[in-house]
Amino acid sequence: MEYTVKKLATLAGVSTRTLRYYDEIGILKPARINSSGYRIYGLAEVNILQQIMFYRELGVELDCIKQILSSPSFDQTAALEEHLENLLSKRAQLNVLIENVRKTIATEEGRMKMTDKEKFEGFKDQLIEENEQKYGEEIRLKYGDATVDKSNNKLKNMTQNQYYQVEQLGAEVLSSINEAFKTGDPGSEIAQKAADLHRQWLSFYWDHYTKEAHAGLAQMYVEDERFTAYYDKENKGTAEFLKNAILIYTGQVKADE
Question: Pick from 67, 93, 172, 210: CA 20 to 30 A from residue 74's CA?
Fold first, then answer.
């Protein structure tokens, strides 16, 4: 069966503008243009759109999706199996959060008691799963399964106060490094303060801190576009600046180099 832009948009529950944009950026081209100038989509394009929507639901950026789908090694069946696994994982996360809400309601009504640790279980499990999906492969290759598993267990065992502290520290790292970025000097007092806050933040996750590992993580921030995009939200080049600040902080380079 073939579809015009309007019919395919209605079928998929997206806007016609979205499909036209996908055509413009080359992620979903129509099968052909008919004599009236309308874009026409066939089964192959329907399947590609389904894949795009699966990846988008999982939070993957369009440029990454384009690279995945255009790769000669792309296997649609394997991709669907991966989507299924990820969706089942998301369902499990939602089930934990739903149960968490139910327990909280029961606690408020006096039907049960809930420990402070239980109140945050669902959120911590969700954070671990999100980190695994986004960065798990790279982090495990760099630091090994044992180190990552220890980090995840440390997060799961955080108290309410520790969880609050790590959230606050994460926000402080971002605000400090963005403020330091304005100086242009990664060796400045405020930049080094940001690097130290980053070390404190890591201590909540890492079983054992080393300057070498800290510097290695900083290098990953500029080598992996996802990390770079996170730190470059306010100012382009912040990830590079943070890396340089951490390299100075850890003694890998001198402040005047």
Answer: 93
Task: Quick: pLDDT tens for 42-83.
Answer: 999 999 999 999 888 877 889 889 988 988 888 888 888 888
Note if the pTM is more than 0.85.
no
Q: Is the pLDDT of residue 118 over 60?
A: no
Those residues whose C-beta lies under 8 Å from the C-beta of residue 124, and which sit 6 or more positions away, are: 155, 156, 158, 163
**Domain covering 3-70 assigned CATH 1.20.1050.10 in the classification:** no
Task: Tally the C-alpha atoms within 13 A of residue 229's C-alpha that lie toward its C-beta.
Answer: 8
